[in-house]
Structures are given as C-alpha cells and as structure tokens.
Amino acid sequence: MLNFPESTKVHKRIPKEAFYRHLPLSAALKGKFVSDVETIIVENSLKKENLNLADDSDVKEILLLSIRLKKQDFDRKIVEAIARQNLHKLVFLLVYEDKCQLAVYHSKLYSTDWIKEKNLTLTLSGNTLAEIWDDLIRQIAISSKAVLRQKDYTVNEQLKIQDEVNRLNKLIQKTAKAAWKEQQPKKRFELYTKLQKYKKQLEELTNGKT
User: Within the chain, what is the greatest distance between any pair of CA atoms?
Assistant: First the structure.
C-alpha cells in the first residue's frame, strides 16, 4: 500500500477537461482522454513543510496522481502528455479494476508491471525532496536488483544501465528462441555464439563493469 503521511493527503479530483483542453494535443489524443480515462485525482502533495524535512532542494513539490482507466491497454501518450506539460514532479498511480501500476516520467515514461492493488508498495526515503524524488524513480523504473545495488551511481546512470539490461534481456530471449528453431548447424552455432556474447555483456553490466 501507499502509506504516505496523512499531512500530504489531498484527494482532489481534477476534471479531465482541465488537461486536454489546455494541453497542445492532437485531436486523436484528446479523444483518448475521453475513451481511456475515467477519473484523475491528486492524491498526495509532498512538500518540505508537510514532510518535516530540514533541508531545501531544487525539487519543491511532488504530486501523486491516480488515474482510473476505462481499459488496461490505454494510450500511454496520455500520461506522457500530462507529465511533460506539468512543472511539478509527478508520480502516477494507474488503476484498472483491481490492478494497478506505478509510472514516472524522467526523460521518458517508466512503469512497473501490473499488480493487484493490495500488493502495491511505494515508500518515501531521503532527507530532501530531491533525494525522495530520485528514490521514487528508482523504485518505479529500476527492476534489476543488481542495478539497485550499484550505490555509487546516480539515478540517471542507473537508469541508463537498466535500459541496457532490458535491451540485452530482449536480445537474449530473441536469440535463444531463434537458435532453438534453427535447423542448420552453422547458423545455429552463430546464434549460440551471439547468445553467449549477450549473456557475458549482461553479466558484466550487472556486476558494475560498465
């Protein structure tokens, strides 16, 4: 569950029209706000004052927005549009029926897998809002425990490594599947060689040899 302090609670519903009427969106994407989104609610506002933080930072406020969806395969450009046009740091709680996922925009949109709402966890950790923001990004965007253990890296460096981990994992799955199907010994050997190379790169990456 999201056990944010009671002092941060807002729970204010924002009309969808307030977003799509004032954002520079295509007619098609404005239509997606109507067809894909049921409600948008500002659930929490995280500030230095209501979190009793001692130190200032460049980040002044973090908002948690819950978006209840009409369908699970919604257009993700909706979330990107809201994040890119908003000056606040935004964390999104996307809800469809009894499932949900967390999302955050940091140069691009990152999200967790869909899980049961009762199993959702997100914690606040840090001495400043900037530290809290970076940690929220890590919780949502970085799925590799090996990457999270690389404490000496900045969040941007960790995200870069996570993106490469994701790319290599996809290549490994694709190459392994192709090698299993390949009938010609020479081509199968070439695919197997590529597979071992990708696995070695992944091993070096997750062990901090970047």
Answer: 67
